[in-house]
Amino acid sequence: MADRIRQYTAYIDQLLATEDETINWEEEMKKHLVQTAFFAHERLIHLIVTVLFALLTVSVFLYTLSNFSGIMLLLLLALMILLIPYIRHYYLLENSVQYMYEQYDRMQQKVSGGFQRQGTFKS
């Protein structure tokens, strides 16, 4: 998933950097919205999984504090080690989807002439 989202955002960046007049921006924007929706859904699923995994880790930590055992300590260590990649992957998805929103805004700018100034739309 990480490679796919990086490749897709790089493709859109290349598209935005070109001055090719034959690009159908309306069609590209529709495709981009579909891809953004896919990645936003993936982001939501990973948020749920990451939060549940973090809650499990905290629960095991609290249990280990009250009922210390070597096995529980190993489980806690394993959960904490696994939590790091979950958080990193969610971080990638969150930032990529936010970046895709910015790309969509730049696509709209190509179609309609853009913004009057940063952050405000023409009416």
How would you summarize the topology of this molecule?
Elements: H1 2-17, H2 25-66, H3 70-112, E1 115-117, E2 120-121
Antiparallel strand pairs: 1-2
Could you explain the architecture of this structure?
The protein has 123 residues and is mainly α. It is 82% helix and 4% strand. The protein contains three helices and two strands. It has helices spanning 2-17, 25-66, 70-112, and strands at 115-117, 120-121. The chain has a two-stranded antiparallel ribbon. β1 and β2 form a beta hairpin. α1 runs parallel beside α3 (70-112) and α2 packs antiparallel against α3 (70-112). It is rod-shaped, with a radius of gyration of 21 Å.
Q: How much is the radius of gyration in Å?
A: 21 Å
- SSE class: mainly alpha
Strand order within the widest sheet? 1-2
How much of the polypeptide forms β-strand, as a percent range?
under 5%
Fraction of residues in helices?
Answer: over 70%
Biggest pleated-sheet summary: 2 strands, antiparallel
Condensed summary:
The chain is mainly alpha-helical and 123 residues long. The chain has helices at residues 2-17, 25-66, 70-112, and strands spanning 115-117, 120-121. Strand 1 and strand 2 form a beta hairpin.
Task: Give the tags.
two-stranded antiparallel ribbon; 123 residues; single chain; 3 helices; mainly alpha
